[in-house]
C-alpha cells in the first residue's frame, strides 16, 4: 500500500481534472466544471433542488463498500428526493472531502460512481468542490425539473390509497448481515452498498395524480409519519399479503429476525411512498399497502398504532 | 459546559426545525425546507450553480471564530462565486455535518450566520441536510440568476486592463496573526473570520463589459493564473502605487513581513479580479492593477514572472 498514489501526491487541481475528465456533453449545461460556477439552461418551469450528505463511518465503510458503490449511493440519495417530488433530475453538484492519504484511485472511482448513477437518470455532474477532511464525505446537491406540479408530503386526503414502489428493508438486512461479519446473500449486502431507487416511478406517480409522495430514506413507518404529519391524516398500513423477498426470508430465519421489521423500519432503499385518489389507476411499479384515513397524525400497521421514532435519526447515539 | 445542550439532546429533526424557524418568505421559493426538495421559480434564463465546502480545522477553528462567523464565511465562499460570473445569488442549500457533542446553540448560530450572509445579497436558505460527522463541516451550494451573459475565466483579450474589487491579503494577515496567538488588529482578524466580498461589483462588471472574471479565493497570483490559462494570455500586475491598508502595514512591520506578500498570495477575501476592454469605463469599486498581454499563459508582478503554485491547495500538506 505504501506505493499507492494518494491525494497528497495528486493534489487538488489534478484530482479535479481527473474527476471531470470526459464528462459527457449535455446541451443543457452551458458551462460545466472549470469556472467559478456551472451555468445551466432552464425552461422557465420551477426547479427542484435538494442536498444529501454521506459521511464515512456513518453511511458507509470503505471496507464494506467499493468506491463506486459509495459514489452511486451518495448520488442516489439526492436523485431519489427529486423523484419523490415527481421530478426528473438534471444535474448534480458535489462537495467531496477526503483525507490526504486517500488513494487517488478511490476518489476517482467514487466520483465515477456518482456520474454513473446520475447518467442512469439522464443527469450530469456539473460542478463541485474538493477539500481535505478527516474522513471521506460527499455532499450531493441535485437539481431537477418538474413534469407537472410538485408532489408534496402534505396533499394526502382521507379515502386515498397508500402505495409503495421499490424495495423495502433490503438495505437494512444487508447492513445487519455486514455488521455480523457476513458478506452474503449478495443481493442484500449489495442493497446496503448502493440502492436501486425506482426513479421513473416518481414522475409516473405525479402524472397519475399522486396526492402526496416521499422517498423512504429513514424507514417506511418513519417516512409515513412525515406524510401523516404534513397532511394531517392517519395512514393505515396493512402487511397481510406482503411477500417477503426470498433472500430476506432466508437471512431473517437464519438470524431469528422478523423480516417485516426490516421492511417497516429499514431506510436507505429509497422506495417511493405515495398516496393516490381511490379512483386513480395506480401506475406500475406501485403496489397498494394501505389507506388514508381522517384523523391523526397517526400511523397504524395491521391496526396497531406506531411510535413516531422508528426511523434513523442523526445525533441520537 | 456539562450542562450545555448538544445536538445529541436536540436530535436531527428538532435541529432542522430550529435552523429553518422564521425563514423569510421569498416569493421565488415555491416550496421551502420541509419536503423532499425545495422548489424554486425560475425566469427561463440560465442559472449559475456552485458548491464550496468548509471543514473545521482546515478553513476555520471554533476557538478563533464564532459560529456566526463560520456560517457567514461558508455562505460567502459560494455567493462570491456567483458574483464572479456576473450573477445575482438567489438561494442556498446547505449540507451541515457536526459531532453529536456540538452545542446546539453553535449549530443554530452558524446557520443564522449563513442566513444573514445570504440575505445580505437577497438570497434565501431553501434546503439542506444535517448529519453526524467527526468535525463541523458545511457544504454550501449557491444558485444564482444572470443579468446578462456569464463572465467566464476564458474571455480575457490582449490589450484588456486587469482590475480588482475588494480586499487583498486581509484574511491572510488575520490568519497569520491568529496563528501567532494574537487577536488584533481586529480588522485583520475579523477578515479571516468572515470575508466581505464585493458582491455587487460582479453584476456591475458584467454590465460594464468585463471579458473575464474570477473571485480571489486562493490568492491574487494563483487566481490570475486561472484566467491566464483559461484565456491563453499573459497578465502583467503592477504593484507600484498600491496602498497598503493601515492595519496591514502596522502588522507587517511588527512581524517583519512584506505586506505585498499577503496581498499577492492571500486568499479567502473573495475579491473579484476582472479584465475589461481598454475602452470600457471601469466601474467602481474596481481599481486597475495591470494589463493583459498576448502570449503566456504567464503572470508577471512588476515585471517578474511568477510561479503557478502560489495559492492554497488542498491535500498538499
In short:
By secondary structure, the first copy, chain A, is of the alpha+beta class.
Question: Topology of this protein?
Answer:
The structure is a homodimer.
Chain A: H1 7-10, H2 12-20, E1 29-31, E2 38-40, E3 47-55, H3 67-83, E4 87-98, H4 104-120, E5 124-132, E6 137-146, E7 161-165, H5 170-179, H6 186-193, H7 201-207, E8 212-216, H8 220-231, E9 234-237, H9 246-254, H10 259-265, E10 271-276, E11 287-293, E12 298-301, E13 304-305
Parallel strand pairs in A: 4-5, 9-12
Antiparallel strand pairs in A: 1-2, 3-6, 4-6, 7-10, 7-11, 8-10, 9-11, 12-13
Largest interface: A-B, 77 and 77 residues
The third-level CATH topology of the largest domain in chain A is: Phosphoribosyl-aminoimidazole Synthetase, Chain A, domain 2
* CATH-level-2 architecture of the largest domain in chain A: Alpha-Beta Complex
Q: What spatial form of chain A do the alpha-carbon principal axes imply?
A: globular
CA-to-CA gap between the ends of chain A?
Answer: 34 Å
